[in-house]
Design goal:
single chain; 361 residues; mainly alpha; Cytochrome Bc1 Complex, Chain D, domain 2; 2 domains; two-stranded antiparallel ribbon; two-stranded antiparallel sheet; 4 strands; binds heme C
Length: 361
Amino acid sequence: MISGKNKNDQNKDFYISFQHLLNIIFVLILTIICLVTFILFEPSIRSCFKNFNKDSSTSIQPYVEKKNAITDELTTFWVPEDINSIKNPTLKARVEYGKELISHTSKYLGPKGSVMQISNGMNCQNCHLVSGTKSWGNNYGSVKSTYPKLRARSGQIEDVKKRINDCFERSLNGKALALNSKEMIAIKSYIEFIGKNVKKGEKAIASGIFDLPFLSRAIDPIKGKALYENKCANCHQMNGEGLMDISQLEYTYPPLWGNNSYNIGAGLFRMGRFAGYIKYNMPYGVSYPNSQLSDEEAWDIAAYVNSQPRPSKDLSKDWPKLKGKPYDHPFGPFADSFSENEHKYGPFKPIVAEKKKIDKK
Ligand code: HEC
Ligand code: HEC
């Protein structure tokens, strides 16, 4: 009975429960420390808390580009025209079909495509993110406003249909769509519709791919390999061949190299395009101005991925005028004195400097 206890016993009871209390507090503090550490170091959880720890200088932050002026102009980035605003039902159906073809190309036009089998299993959206609408995600904002245009690669005036077929034949390592096919007309209608709010002759802000600053050294596939295995292989796989979804009709994680990837004539095979694309889009989920890759890392991963085997393509008719060849096109002949290896891996600064002089002549 409590009332029967003497003072000594009561003191002892108090002392024991006080010690219990201390123990509980100690365990509580430990749990909190563990939780906080977990949140800080586990990337997926950290991204949920991004907005909360924005100002804390002690937490680990993803790499953020600081020196680009455009950061302050986020609000002026291009946004696509809204499909729901289309009144004409025929036009709306056509534009929607175009969007569907861009988002799930392989289901309709891939190796097991329901309409035709003319491409490698990739979707346009794999590289033109969010159906070609994402800022610096290789979006189509400037297509309607800048085509037809003279393209140095072909030496010809190219219209939108020709440009779409370029990606079918190179990025999707496939065949061209017939120019008057229902599919070509739908894809063109969609791309032109979403960009119709950009003034003719002007470029939409944050359309296409970001131009990364050059490194002062050659880019390094060996450094890139380690980074790839650490930051990309969990989705795109160690062998770079990606992962199909259960339907086996399209990829959950598209291939970065191997037989089913883009060929050596594709835009992404150029190091500058690849590095700029991944800087603000990969690992999947990052968006400008945030990045999980420093410029160096993006360039070195480009060097590694674009050193791996992939389908070939006859490029002998490309760049009829050597002057127009980009600094990172890795196949000769060139107007300058640099080798194929230097055009592939850099250092790019001296190549660009010499190219400027040659282009002026
Ligand atoms: C493997 C990646 C990849 C895939 C897949 C891909 N493209 Fe492209 N596409 C590119 C790159 C890279 C560019 C050039 C971007 C640049 O230089 O700024 C480009 C450019 C374009 C352009 C011109 C954009 C402009 O502003 O000049 C169009 C149009 C286009 N692609 C349509 C398509 C269509 C349609 C598909 C699907 C049939 C497709 N692309 C699939 C990588 C890809
Ligand atoms: C969380 C999974 C994930 C990680 C990690 C990831 N990616 Fe991707 N990646 C994707 C998905 C999904 C797509 C296709 C996006 C779509 O279709 O909307 C993609 C598309 C691409 C593409 C364009 C399509 C192609 O196959 O060529 C490239 C290039 C690419 N990723 C490179 C990388 C690189 C390099 C890394 C590492 C820095 C990386 N990715 C990390 C999921 C991932």
